[in-house]
Amino acid sequence: MKQRHLYGEIFRFGIVGVGATALHYGIYYLLQQVINVNVAYTVGYVLSFVANFYATAYFTFASVPSWKKLFGMGVAHGVNYLLHIVLLNIFLYVGISKAWAPLPVFAIAIPVNFLLVRFVFKHKR
Fold it and tell me: Is the pLDDT of residue 125 over 60?
């Protein structure tokens, strides 16, 4: 039963993640045409984080949002953001276009993010 519950969390995380990633990428894609790519990526990340926090709390983990969870998720996403921005710049450096560079970043960073965020919402203290 626990394994089935975990699969449900992963599935719901995927749904929320697709929405947050689409929001992040859409904002980035529009902004990177007129401002620095790192700034565009950061603005998209922050705005998608806010939406992601509430969707993750209510939908993914059936939990009530709290300041403690916001702080914990903020720390997890801070670590994840650093991974994102480093990978983005690596992929840009090796020649991937600004429009496509976030895609391999997402493929690497999203599974890491799931583990970090799951720890925040499921860790018992």
Answer: no
Distance (Å, whole) CA 12 – CA 23: 17
What does the alpha-carbon distance between residue 99 and residue 3 come to, in Å, rounded to a whole number?
A: 38
User: If you search the block for the tokens 């806010």, which residue do you land on?
Assistant: 50
Q: For residue 16, count other CB atoms closer than 10 A to its CB.
A: 22
Of 98 and 68, the structure prediction assigns the larger pLDDT to 98
What span, in angstroms and rounded, lies between the C-alpha atoms of 15 and 75?
22
pTM: 0.79
- Whole-number Å distance between alpha carbons of 118 and 95: 34
Tokens found for residue 56: 């993750």
Per the CB < 8 A criterion, the answer to whether 45 and 81 are in contact is yes
CA distance 122 to 107: 23
Residue type, 118: R
For residue 111, pLDDT over 90 is answered with: no
State the residue for tokens 């583990």: 115
Distance CA 18, CA 113 (A): 13
